[in-house]
Design goal:
The protein is mainly β. It is built from two helices and 38 strands. Bound molecules: (Z)-L-Arabinonhydroximo-1,4-lactone. The site of (Z)-L-Arabinonhydroximo-1,4-lactone (6LW) has 15 residues, from strand 15 and strand 19.
């Protein structure tokens, strides 16, 4: 059947996948956002539903002082003997660790640290042994995958870390995963860096430590040779392989959607793509559609794909808080939810600081979106932000200074902080903030006692990874700031964030 990519849309980078029984589980990186490492479940590899997060307690991950795009890097999920393992790196502190659970819907353990450096750790289990691998570099500074055996109960290294593969020569050798399929061992990795030259490569051997022979046509999967006029899907790389009950193999990998044919910017972050894998009799495999990932892919699956709608309102969120993310170390006392209202107590931290402002966000998953929220009361500053990081965000907010109430549209792009428009609404009673977006632009307006006032627009490219750098994607948030000594709650109601799936073209 033909599936539509991406299968998980929005900022869900560095996917890793495992099979447990008849279900599949997938995890992604989360960087400075909390809770960390979203988990998805699927019965068919195309329809994915978020079921939780692995890192839900600050005892597992303390993000208080991590930089943006630091914190929680690429995770790997594995299932062995009834136990789920999620292994990742706290990149800010250069520490690799894993957490475990026997209940995928429940809480995960405290972290178990492994004394091997590098990023993108992965685990491989065989015959009671646990192999731990991560990236690193050799004596000449060239990328290299290192592997050791660990005591899985304690994380203690049982063997020396040995170099097992140096990749195919691309820069940034990352995301190693080891598999045993039909008697062969495979080390699969990403190279090229998580940008336009990204790719998946692999090598085959007879032993978990190799020697591995590189696939002679590496990369096995990449869109790096396709210009924007050939593919708006770029950056394909960093993936993991899984085999279904029918014996069909698939790679779930990351990629991104650039704005348009001649507009090489992406701001929705790196997303999850599905590609088929085919083995030959000699045990070599090819992937995708002749090695590339397309929006529409023919795969050996039978379940119908339902295009997931990421739209939400307060009612949805009061029932299911999973799409909500916070910056670093939120103080949950500052957030009060009911079915149709959210109260936020601001703190002294504002959106332009790499700290923990009062902010609750939802990943933007589609280019076309529209948001509307009524601000019922404001302490000093409360509103909506379209947020890439502390340096790059568009804010539409209500401010209260003494008794003067204003609606303000502010652009913060790099070191330019610019108030585009400010209108006095001190004598009005009903304030609605609205934003809508397409591939290129965010448009902001307010509705004051029924009258619609356009406030201006901000280009999406200034929130893109190409401009801002980093590894995250745009998150749309509600926030409050109150720098006074006795901060108060601001109140939001009638929140709707609609996301409209891109047309199939
Ligand atoms: C991640 C690395 C990568 O650790 O980006 O796409 C880094 N690949 O493997 C951050 O997401």
């Amino acid at each position: 059947m033909i599936i539509t990519n991406p299968v998980i849309r929005g900022f869900y980078p560095d996917p890793s996948v495992c099979k447990a029984g008849n279900k599949y589980y997938l995890v992604c990186s989360s960087f400075q956002y909390f809770p960390g490492v979203p988990i998805f479940e699927s019965e068919d590899l195309v329809n994915w539903k978020q079921i939780g997060h692995c890192l839900t307690r600050s005892s597992q991950i303390d993000l208080e002082s991590v930089n943006s795009s630091g914190g929680v890097f690429a995770p790997t999920i594995r299932y062995n003997d009834g136990v789920f393992y999620m292994v990742t790196t706290n990149d800010t502190y250069h520490k690799n660790f894993y957490v475990t659970t026997t209940d995928i819907y429940g809480e995960w353990s405290e972290p178990i640290f492994v004394d091997q450096g590098g990023i993108d750790p992965s685990l491989y289990f065989e015959d009671g042994k646990t192999y731990f691998m991560s990236n690193g570099s050799d004596e000449e500074g060239r990328g290299c995958i290192y592997q050791c055996e660990i005591d899985v109960k304690t994380g203690e290294r049982l063997t020396e870390s040995k170099p097992i593969w140096k990749g195919s020569g691309g820069r940034y050798l990352e995301s190693p995963h080891l598999y045993k399929i039909n008697g062969n061992y495979y080390i699969m990795a990403a190279e090229g860096g998580t940008e336009y030259g990204h790719m998946i490569t692999y090598a085959k051997g007879n032993n978990p430590y190799g020697p591995f022979v590189s696939y002679h046509k590496n990369p096995v999967l990449t869109n790096r040779n396709l210009g924007g006029h050939q593919s708006k899907i770029q950056g394909i790389g960093h993936g993991d392989m899984v085999i279904d009950n029918a014996g069909n193999a698939f790679i779930l990998c990351l990629g991104f959607r650039q704005h348009d044919t001649w507009s090489p910017y992406h701001h929705l972050g790196r997303e999850v793509f599905l590609a088929p894998v085919y083995f030959d009799e000699d045990g070599w495999f090819v992937a995708g559609d002749a090695g590339i990932v397309k929006k529409e892919m023919e795969v050996e699956l039978t379940k119908e794909q339902k295009i997931y709608d990421y739209s939400v309102d307060f009612e949805d969120l009061s029932r299911n808080k999973l799409p909500l993310i916070y910056l670093r170390k939120p103080d949950y006392d500052n957030y009060k939810w009911t079915d149709n209202c959210l109260k936020l107590k601001g703190c002294k931290t504002d959106l332009s600081q790499a700290l923990s402002p009062t902010f609750v966000g939802i990943r933007q998953s589609d280019f076309n979106s529209s948001l509307s929220v009524e601000v019922k009361s404001v302490s000093t500053e409360a509103g909506v932000t379209v947020y890439m990081d502390e340096n790059n965000h568009y804010d539409l907010y209500v401010s209260k200074v003494d008794e003067k109430i204003s609606v303000v549209f502010r652009k913060c792009i790099a070191d330019i902080k610019h108030i585009e428009k400010s209108i006095d609404v001190s004598n009005n009673s009903n304030i609605i903030l609205e934003m809508n977006s397409n591939n290129y632009v965010y448009m902001f307006r307010c509705i004051i006692d029924g009258e619609c006032i356009e406030l201006g627009s901000g280009q999406a490219r200034y929130l893109s990874s190409e401009v801002c750098g980093g590894f995250t994607g745009v998150v749309v948030g509600l926030y409050a700031v109150d720098k006074t000594e006795n901060p108060n709650y601001s109140e939001f109601t009638k929140f709707v964030f609609n996301q409209v799936v891109e047309e199939n073209k």
